[in-house]
Specification:
Largest sheet: 5 strands, antiparallel
Number of strands: 5
Helix content: 25-40%
């Protein structure tokens, strides 16, 4: 009789573990469905041959068509370039701002 109880205990323990695994899996799927949808270019970052590129949403525009900004740091000329992509349908990238990095860091230091 003790053998039968041991088998039932193992079966019950395994059932509890499986139920917990299924519950955790369902919770992961539910939470993943709640994640904010981001643009494909968000958080893209690359750098090569003196240039670093980073893109992000500006927080403007509609959720379906956010306004994207591309930040380019030219370390050779020490310049920050900011481009905006306001309408994806127009395929236009517009230069919005240029900034000398030396002057930018000097202002940040209070010089």
């Amino acid at each position: 009789m003790s053998t039968r109880n041991d088998k039932q205990s193992i079966g019950t323990g395994a059932a509890i573990l499986w139920a917990t695994a299924v519950l955790l899996g369902a919770l992961v799927i539910i939470q993943a469905g709640r994640l904010e949808q981001r643009a494909y270019a968000d958080q893209a970052n690359s750098g090569q041959q003196g240039y670093s590129v980073c893109s992000a949403t500006t927080g403007q525009g509609t959720p379906s068509e956010p306004i994207e900004a591309v930040y380019i740091v030219d370390s050779r000329d020490e310049v920050l370039l900011v481009y905006a992509i306001e309408r994806f349908q127009d395929f236009k990238v517009q230069l919005r701002h240029t900034e000398n990095l030396g002057a930018l860091f000097a202002r940040a230091r209070g010089n």
